[in-house]
């Protein structure tokens, strides 16, 4: 494939109509700049457009949505294979976050587009109030995220910021729950209703057992009045316990976030491997087609030369 620098001038286009050809796609995209290459993948549902410069890509992405043959195209900047290809609206930042403020971080990324929010989680660790070492920045457009990823690495105060795409874990969890099958089928519910009706009928027909004798009256002991010293000690104990519980909850949340991002990075690695294999396959398929065409042309030329030699020999 092309080098990482040329990726800034490439666009991935999805949701193409089956009737669209590479030439038609190139004619449509050429109104936004000069085209270096344009081709469709094997399934003809997506294609790649490479412009001569990044300015044409910025113009093409700023004019979204694009409609061709009644289909709205899903356009995305091409990213390195080791980056998450999914379109998101947030980034996850690690590195020199402890030395930065939310305003400085938001001002740095404001040059790429509108910043919706910038959050640096904070909390107590070892009885000290500190940063957790990461931050989230949200934007109003998914294309801004891809542009930031293309411009990596980023530096602030001569320190590199480790930037990754941040998926919406709450939405993914909600979608997974909505897609999960029901725990009980309609047949099991009807069976349970029949069992409940049979149980009620048996209870009505069976004689009721004799009522048990009333329990003896409870002996209520008078509550001793707490002294002022006991009240103060109990209050201090409850406050200390509440503080410990809050610190424990904060640390548990921090460990949960770390484990969640660790699992997310593993999932990202698998997706990157898949994207890398897919891109390598497309590249090899194009090379194979090119070599086959050249070989066919050489074979045709060789046959023509052989036939000409035979004709010349027969004339002699």
TrEMBL record:
GO cellular component, one term: chromatin
Region called Disordered, residue ranges: 166-232, 295-316
Main subcellular location of this protein, as a coarse class: nucleus
SUPFAM superfamilies the record matches: RNA-binding domain, RBD
Places the protein is found: Nucleus
Alphabetic keyword roster: Coiled coil, Nucleus, RNA-binding
Alphabetized GO MF terms: RNA binding
Coiled coil feature spans: 260-287
One protein family per Pfam: RRM_1
Domain RRM, first and last residues per copy: 9-86, 89-168
GO biological process terms on file: regulation of gene expression
PANTHER family in alphabetical order: RNA-BINDING (RRM/RBD/RNP MOTIFS) FAMILY PROTEIN, RNA-BINDING PROTEIN SQUID
Name under which the protein is recorded: RRM domain-containing protein
High-level lineage: Eukaryota, Metazoa, Spiralia, Gnathifera, Rotifera
């Amino acid at each position: 494939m092309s080098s990482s620098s040329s990726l800034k001038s490439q666009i991935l286009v999805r949701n193409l109509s089956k009737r669209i050809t590479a030439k038609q796609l190139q004619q449509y995209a050429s109104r936004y700049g000069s085209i270096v290459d344009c081709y469709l993948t094997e399934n003809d549902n997506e294609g790649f457009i490479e412009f001569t410069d990044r300015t044409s890509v910025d113009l093409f992405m700023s004019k979204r949505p694009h409609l061709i043959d009644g289909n709205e195209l899903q356009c995305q900047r091409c990213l390195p294979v080791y980056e998450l290809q999914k379109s998101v609206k947030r980034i996850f930042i690690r590195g020199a976050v402890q030395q930065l403020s939310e305003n400085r971080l938001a001002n740095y990324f404001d040059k790429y587009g509108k910043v919706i929010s910038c959050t640096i989680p904070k909390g107590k660790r070892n009885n000290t109030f500190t940063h957790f070492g990461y931050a989230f920045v949200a934007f109003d457009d998914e294309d801004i995220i891809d542009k930031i990823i293309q411009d990596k690495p980023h530096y602030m105060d001569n320190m590199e910021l480790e930037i990754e795409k941040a998926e919406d874990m709450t939405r993914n969890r909600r979608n997974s729950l909505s897609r999960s099958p029901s725990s009980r089928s309609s047949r099991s519910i009807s069976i349970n209703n029949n069992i409940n009706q049979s149980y009620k009928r048996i209870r009505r027909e069976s004689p009721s057992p004799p009522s048990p004798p009333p329990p003896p009256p409870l002996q209520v002991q008078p509550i001793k009045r707490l002294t002022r010293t006991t009240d103060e000690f109990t209050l201090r104990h409850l406050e200390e316990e509440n503080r410990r519980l809050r610190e424990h909850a904060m640390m548990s949340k921090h460990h949960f976030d770390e484990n969640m991002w660790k699992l997310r990075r593993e999932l990202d690695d698998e997706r990157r491997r898949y994207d890398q294999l897919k891109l390598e396959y497309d590249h090899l398929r194009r090379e194979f087609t090119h070599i086959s065409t050249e070989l066919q042309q050489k074979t045709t030329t060789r046959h023509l030369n052989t036939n000409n030699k035979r004709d010349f020999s027969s004339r002699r």
